[in-house]
Amino acid sequence: GCDVMFHAPREYKKLVQFCQYMVIFIALVILFVINIEKILTFFAWIVSILFPFFIGLGFAFVFNIISNNLIRVYKAITKKKETKRIRTFANLLSIIIFVLIFIAFFIAIIPQLVLSIEKLVNNIPLIATHLKTLALRLTKHSKSLYQFVAHIDLSKIDTQTMVGYLDQTSKLIFGSNTFVGQVNSIISTTISWVTTFFISFVFSIFVIFNKKRFLTDMHHFFYAVLPENAYAKTNHIYQVFKHTFARYIGGTLLECVILASLVIIGSTLLHLPYSFLCGFVIGIAALVPMFGALVAAFLCSLLIFAQSPTQGITFFVMFICIQQVEGNFIYPNVVGKSVGLPSMYVLVAITVGASIGGVLGMIVFIPVFSSLYRLMQEYEFTQFKKRGIRMEENETE
To answer: Model-level pTM greater than 0.70?
Structure first.
């Protein structure tokens, strides 16, 4: 009797199941909201553990790009097909090229950077004198400020005083840490990054030499857990992201090297100070699209301006000229074709990426948005085709 009393009628069975699913779903959402901090902490912990392997996959991706280009050149020269032995040799050569570039960076560029930094440190008294002179000119209409600047005795600014100023600046920027404590933190962070780099590099070697096995395992896994139609769509999405990232990474790195080289050559020809330091900083900052190189050039020009106002202005004018050449000729041919993303969406990608992942997010979200934009265009084209409507080119731009 009790079973009959609490048994739902057959016509309401689907409604009862729907209500049960909704109750379970709402309960899970409530639990997620209540424990969101613990869940996010747990995921952050998982990501921190897997982070070296994600970086390793990135290295393997770069090695694969170099290897594919080497094989493409080999085919063009010899007119022969790719073999397993050739692929192994190309993978090994790609790693050697990467290592040689890395070694050349430390042998050729780092000493130049050290010399530039030493020169900068030695010129601190001269820079301070120029800054005081400039401050006196700017404050000559304000008697109180002028007297304050005029009473600054630069001869009393020694190493201990500079460390004290650096401590105050560090507390203002980083909180309670002193300058020495901040330096220790930077050193420990550097050691951690070096360890992560080593683990990632070793893992990338295993991946690149076992690429076929790795990709086969991934394909088999997704084919097993996904329906056939969903697997085909997932594979297409993967191919789009792979193609976009490959072209974007290769183009961006080449563009950064070209821009840094032009800045170094231009600064050297114009006899401007800190040529290698400024070229290196601008080349690294150029990884951040749109604003990175310009901001770095402005800071470098301020650094040179403190030593020589004329040379500082000359450097910034030189960079503007280089950027015009780079923006009109180099970027469209090297990076622009690989991005395929309108400027307004590039700005959105940079903003979203900066909010989520800082500088790294700004770099990564450009190819991510580009891939999503291409997939959206493909979907729009399919829908227009189903409805018998011709999609004009200006509608997709």
So the answer is: no
